[in-house]
Design a protein that fits this description.
By secondary structure, this protein is α/β, with parallel strands linked by helices. It has two domains: 117 residues, Aspartate Aminotransferase, domain 1 (Alpha-Beta Complex); 216 residues, Type I PLP-dependent aspartate aminotransferase-like (Major domain) (Aspartate Aminotransferase, domain 2), CATH 3.40.640. A hairpin with a 2-residue loop joins strand 5 and strand 6. Bound molecules: pyridoxal-5'-phosphate. The site of pyridoxal-5'-phosphate has 13 residues, from helix 3.
Length: 379
C-alpha cells in the first residue's frame, strides 16, 4: 500500500502546541518535534474502533503488551529482551525525571551530552542535582562524544550518565564501536546509564541501523535503563506511551516508584495505538523513512548553498541542526522568526549559534521554510 505523505494537513485549531502556540499564528511553525502527517491508517482504524466501543473505564496494560514489545525489539534491533524487564510508562520524559530522581542522591552529579533535548537538564535541575556536560564534537560531519575527554569530566560524585541515541539535536546514530566505548567507560567508572532511544525508529542513513546501547554487552545492560516509545515514529505523542527496559531488577524497581501515584498510567488509547503500530505499522514506517530521506536531501542541498550556514550528515530523525556560527549574527533564531519561520532556538539545547528545524512535514512546507531561510540570511 502506498502512503501519501504529501497530502496537505491542517492542524490549526486543534490545540497543537506547535501550530496553535499563542504568539506564533503569523509564522510557519517548524519547531516542536511532532510531524504534520496523519498517523498510519492501522493506528487510526484501531483508535476509531476503541472510541466506538464507547466505554472508557480504568484500563490496565494489556497482558500481551510486554511480550509484543520484546518481539518488536528483537525484530527491529535484534535485541533480546525478557518481557519482564519492561516497565510501561506514560512518556519518555517522565522516565527521564524518575531516573534522575531515583538513581542519584543530593550531592551526586549527572553526566549529560551538549547539545541535548532540554528535559535532560531540567530533569537534573528539578531534582536539585548538578550536571556536567559532555560537549559533542563534529567529526566527519557527525556529532560524536568527546571520548578522550570523558575521564576529565567526571568525579567521585558522578553517578549517572544520560545518553541520547539517535541524538537530539544533532541526529547522530551511534555506531557499535562508539556505543561500546561509551558503555564500557560508564561500566568502568560505575555510572548508571539512562539511554533515551525515542528516535530509534527514524534512522535515515541508508547503511545504518539503530543499535540499543544495552544490547552491546551484559555488563552495559546491567547498568542501563533504556527509554523507548513509538510516539515519535508513528506520530502519536498526544496519545502515546513509553517503556523502560532494564535487565537489572533494582533499576526496574526505581522506574516503578511513583507509577499510578504521582505518575498517571497511560491512557487506554495509548495501548491501542502502540499495539496497532507494532502489529501493522511497519509498511507505513518504511514509507515515512523514504519521505524523510527526500526532505533530508533537500535540506542538505539547499542549506549547503547558503553562505554562512552548515549542516551535519542528518543520520536520524526529522530535526535538522543548522549551524549558523559563520554568520556572526547575535540571534539567528530571532532573525528567522522575524522573517516568518519558527524553529527551535539552539539555546534551548545549549548552543546559541544553532537553530533546529523540524522537517517532519510536507515537502511543500519545507520548501517554503527553506525559501524563508535563504532570503533571511541573504539579507
Ligand atoms: C530525546 C527525546 N526524548 C523524549 C522526548 C519526548 O518524549 P515523550 O513525549 O514520550 O515524553 C523527545 C521529544 O522531542 C525527545 O526528542
Amino acid at each position: 500500500m502506498a502512503f501519501n505523505f504529501d497530502s496537505p494537513t491542517n492542524r490549526l485549531g486543534t490545540d497543537s502546541i506547535r501550530w496553535d502556540g499563542a504568539d506564533l499564528k503569523e509564522v510557519l511553525p517548524l519547531w516542536v518535534a511532532d510531524m504534520d502527517f496523519q498517523s498510519p491508517p492501522c493506528v487510526i482504524e484501531a483508535l476509531n474502533n476503541r472510541v466506538h466501543q464507547g466505554i472508557y473505564g480504568y484500563t490496565h496494560s494489556p497482558h500481551q503488551l510486554n511480550a509484543m514489545i520484546a518481539a518488536y525489539l528483537q525484530a527491529q534491533y535484534q535485541w533480546t529482551v525478557d518481557p519482564d524487564w519492561i516497565v510501561i510508562l506514560p512518556s519518555v520524559v517522565s522516565g527521564l525525571y524518575t531516573t534522575v530522581q531515583q538513581l542519584t542522591k543530593q550531592d551526586d552529579c549527572v553526566l549529560i551530552p551538549n547539545p541535548v533535548y532540554h528535559h535532560f537538564k531540567l530533569a537534573c535541575s528539578t531534582a536539585n542535582r548538578s550536571f556536567q556536560e559532555m560537549p559533542l564534537e563534529l567529526k566527519d560531519g557527525r556529532w560524536v562524544l568527546p571520548i578522550q575527554q570523558l575521564q576529565s569530566l567526571i568525579s567521585s560524585k558522578t553517578t549517572l550518565a544520560l545518553f541520547c541515541n539517535p541524538q537530539n539535536p544533532g541526529s547522530t546514530v551511534f555506531t557499535r564501536e562508539e556505543l561500546k566505548e561509551f558503555g564500557d567507560f560508564c561500566v568502568q567508572n560505575n555510572l548508571w546509564i539512562c539511554s533515551d532511544e525515542i528516535h530509534a525508529g527514524l534512522v535515515l542513513t541508508e547503511d545504518k541501523q539503530h543499535i540499543p546501547l544495552a544490547s552491546i554487552s551484559k555488563a552495559i545492560s546491567e547498568k542501563t535503563i533504556t527509554l523507548m516509545s513509538l510516539n515519535k515514529t508513528f506520530n502519536f505523542p498526544g496519545v502515546g506511551l513509553a517503556w523502560a527496559v532494564a535487565e537489572n531488577p533494582s533499576l526496574r524497581k526505581a522506574m516503578q516508584v511513583g507509577l499510578h501515584q504521582t505518575i498517571a498510567p497511560p491512557s487506554l488509547f495509548a495501548y491501542t495505538a502502540t499495539m496497532a503500530a507494532i502489529q501493522e505499522g511497519e509498511p507505513w514506517r518504511q514509507g515515512l523513512i523514504q519521505y524523510l530521506r527526500k526532505n533530508r536531501d533537500l535540506i542538505q542541498s539547499r542549506i549547503s548553498n547558503i553562505a554562512g550556514l552548515s549542516i551535519d550528515k542528518m543520520e536520524g530523525s526529522y530535526l535538522a541542526w543548522i549551524d549558523c556560527t559563520q554568520l556572526n549574527h547575535p540571534n539567528p533564531y530571532q532573525l528567522l522568526l522575524d522573517a516568518g519561520l519558527a524553529t527551535s532556538p539552539g539555546s534551548q539545547f545549549g548552543r546559541d549559534q544553532f537553530v533546529r528545524l523540524n522537517f517532519g512535514t510536507q515537502e511543500s512546507r519545507l520548501t517554503q521554510a527553506l525559501n524563508i531561510i535563504e532570503s533571511a540570511f541573504a539579507k
